[in-house]
Design the sequence.
């Protein structure tokens, strides 16, 4: 079975805007545009602030322990429920976690096995 991965990269604002401009030109000319999937940060420092050791621990715990709720995730990681909920909300906003709403609980889930970091030099 092939491991699914999410691509994480570092792109400066100018590079991202240049790429967007190129895509818009291709769309205007009805040319095919290659779909790029991933999560990009403006700097390595922004990446480090987003994926802190505690957030990486949450991602790992969700993948390995498959908690049924955010409350259960907090218990497993021995962290305060509010802090875990805040981290889950942020990780969902940047595309690392999906939340599935059940009857009474919100279940965090991950659809990938690894995170691959790409840094252009």
Sequence:
């Amino acid at each position: 079975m092939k491991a699914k991965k999410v691509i994480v990269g570092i792109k400066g604002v100018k590079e991202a805007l240049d790429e967007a401009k190129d895509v818009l030109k291709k769309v205007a000319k009805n040319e095919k545009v290659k779909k790029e999937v991933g999560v990009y940060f403006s700097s390595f420092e922004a990446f480090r602030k987003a994926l802190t050791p505690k957030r990486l621990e949450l991602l790992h715990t969700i993948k390995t322990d498959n908690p049924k709720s955010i409350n259960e995730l907090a218990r497993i990681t021995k962290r305060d429920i509010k802090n875990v909920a805040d981290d889950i909300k942020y990780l969902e906003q940047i595309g690392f976690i999906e939340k599935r709403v059940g009857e009474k609980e919100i279940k965090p889930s991950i659809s990938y096995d690894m995170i691959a970091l790409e840094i252009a030099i």
